[in-house]
Specification:
alpha+beta, 9 strands, single chain, nine-stranded mixed beta sheet, Pnp Oxidase, Chain A
Length: 164
């Protein structure tokens, strides 16, 4: 029996640009974590921004189930990309990012920079950014998978997603 043909295309500059654009334009994402009690996958919606260096960034409460999961296991996955107003949702581009998280609390040197940068794109977060149960989470990208639409699948590295 012949070897199956890989659906993954060679990563090119067009794929990198689309992936970076999906990440930069996202204001929310689906966050995948592992439930610490059961090990089962858990998905929630989070607000999403970027650090000044272009890494994915969110502001989350310690009261949230996904925060407890990330404290127990820093591995996470993000899904960004919205279906367009027409057509099959699976034909629209989307990006899945695999990452490890780093919590940034008020005591950290870069908290003030992240706060200012995040609030520039998420001004409604001003209402709760300074609550004691909130912290920033930076996602250190390890790998990504881009589905650019039907028949356009790519595997990406952290370097592929870095702004140039």
């Amino acid at each position: 029996m012949p070897e199956p043909i890989s659906p993954i295309r060679p990563t090119d500059d067009e794929a990198r640009a689309l992936a970076r654009s999906l990440l930069a334009d996202a204001r929310h994402a689906a966050l995948g974590t592992l439930d610490p009690a059961t090990g089962a996958p858990f998905v929630s919606r989070i607000a999403l921004g970027q650090t000044p260096e272009g890494l994915p960034l969110t502001l989350i409460s310690t009261l949230a189930q996904h925060t407890r999961a990330l404290v127990a296991d820093p591995r996470a996955s993000l899904l960004v990309g919205e279906p367009g107003p027409k057509g099959d949702p699976l034909t629209h581009p989307r990006l899945t990012v695999q990452a490890r998280v780093r919590f940034v609390g008020r005591q950290d040197a870069d908290h003030a920079i992240l706060r200012t940068h995040y609030l520039a794109t998420h001004p409604k977060a001003t209402l709760y950014v300074d609550f004691v149960d909130f912290a920033f989470v930076v996602f250190a990208v390890e790998a990504a998978s881009l589905n650019g639409g039907f028949g356009k699948a790519y595997s990406l590295t952290a370097a592929d997603l870095s702004p140039r």
